[in-house]
Amino acid sequence: MSSPLCGVAVINAIVFGVYGSAMRFLGENTLSNQFLAGAFAGGVQSIISCPMELAKTKMQLQGVLGPDAMQAIKTGFAQKPALYRSPVDCLWKLYSTQGVRGVYRGFGSTLTRELPGFGSYFFSYEVLTRAMTPIEGYDDDGKAVNGQIGIGRLLMAGGLSGIISWLVSFPQDVVKSRYQADEQYTSARHCALQSYRSEGVSVFSRGLWSTVLRAFPTNAATLTVVTLFLRYVSDLNDEKYLQGLML
């Protein structure tokens, strides 16, 4: 369990760190910049998440008999001895036998999932938080002065953003997972076509609702905690600035 937890922590640190740097580089806080910064963050973290997810998939499916690993798992055949002792051992053996290409199997599919997924994630969060922020009053020019959005609304905006992100990227995730799990596929495109021909279009939404149910609380908590932390740090910086003026 510690390995997945560490992996999630590393991925989140990369995503929010790169996203923040990208927004500072882009300058203006527009919705298009939110999407671009999110997509860029998703692309960068793919460098880490692709081999991590590949190792996790291989560890979960190792020892399965037959050319079709997914089908063998469904029917309960798991008779071969375990090949990998740990995720690191898995990646090392893949690198030793297949090189970098083996470690990054499914990288293209990961990008097609993460670029629109994280782009829509931060875009939708910005749209929702703007819409949910209460108006505190109006200035002398008649322009609305926004108040501070509460925790309840932050949780709702974060949860809905996670759902939107998965709705955008779930079909790509299905293809990526199948391609990484089964060596019979020669490419992600081959995997998508074979899956469609054998199981129909519904294969690309299989497991979507369970993912959506998990996405809401996870992303509600993540984005709310990040927003509150940044708000706290901003308040601290304002206090230090005011203290500096008083001195």
In terms of topology, how is this protein built?
Elements: H1 2-26, H2 31-61, H3 69-75, H4 87-103, H5 107-132, E1 135-138, E2 144-146, H6 151-181, H7 188-199, H8 208-246
Antiparallel strand pairs: 1-2
Keyword list:
single chain, two-stranded antiparallel ribbon, 76% helix, mainly alpha, 247 residues
- Structural class call reads mainly alpha
Structure summary, number of beta strands: 2
Distance between the termini: 51 Å
Give the CA-based shape.
Answer: elongated
Helix share of residues?
over 70%
Question: How large a portion of the residues is in β-strands, by DSSP E?
Answer: under 5%
Mean pLDDT: 86
Question: Low-confidence spans: pLDDT under 50, at least 5 residues?
Answer: 241-247
Q: Summarize the biggest pleated sheet.
A: 2 strands, antiparallel
**Rg, alpha carbons:** 22 Å
Q: Which sequence of strands runs across the widest sheet?
A: 1-2
Number of alpha- plus pi-helical segments? 8
SSE order, one letter for each helix or strand:
HHHHHEEHHH
